[in-house]
Sequence to fold (254 residues):
Amino acid sequence: MVPTRPQERATPFDRMLTPLHRWIWSDAERRVLKLLRFGETETDGGRDILRAAEVTSDPLLRRLYLEHAIDEFRHGVMFRRRATTLLGALPSRSTSGFHGEWLAPGGHGLDDLQVDNESDETMLAFLHLSEKAAASRFTVYRDVMHHDPPTRAVFEEILHDETFHMNYTLTQLARVAPENHRRHLWRARLSRLWKAYLRLATALAGMLGSILLTIQYFVLLPPFAWLAKRAERREVSGWSLVSPERSSLLDREY
Ligand SMILES: [Fe+2]
Ligand SMILES: [Fe+2]
Fold:
């Protein structure tokens, strides 16, 4: 096992889910799909950080954000390359099935961020927490990847960068907001918690909606189908004569 650097520690929650992550990553098809998704998330995160470099007025932050964005783009390429190699070795089969997306998320959750509306302090607090979460998850993913050393090496290398991102964002937050950087961190934590709750509530609502629609389909529709079939049986087939009273209706437009 690779010795754990001081900052590369998974949270107890991520560590607790290790058996589940081991199972999710054990399937080669799922691994390909997840790596592709991770590649997309890293590249998207890189774009947001590039935007942060454009909007900040702090020269040091601009340089650090640029380096950070380059790292995230590189991570995207690494994940995609590894996924492509794995894909080439896969037998041609359906790629449908359970992917464990919400159980084993990737990236930094930067999709929650409106970069143009953030100050340097809120941006750094958000980035620090996002990188910390990514480092925690990637530590677990690396540790459960014994069966696939090349993918494990990808996580190992990316984890090194994520740890640097996690550390520099905290150092810079303490520099730009020496008095109240802890308050910014707590606000960012609460904001992430709230967004996580909203995501969970949306997923639950979607699941409940599907269950209710399925119940309606099997409980409410059968009686209507039965009534329609009964009416169809009573219907005389072919042309039938219309009584003179009813046929007079055809003389006028309405
Ligand atoms: Fe990354
Ligand atoms: Fe990162």
About this structure: The chain has a mean pLDDT of 88. The radius of gyration is 28 Å. The pocket of fe (ii) ion (ligand 1) is lined by residues 42, 72, 75, 158, 162 (CB under 6 Å). The CA atoms of residues 192 and 214 lie 33 Å apart.
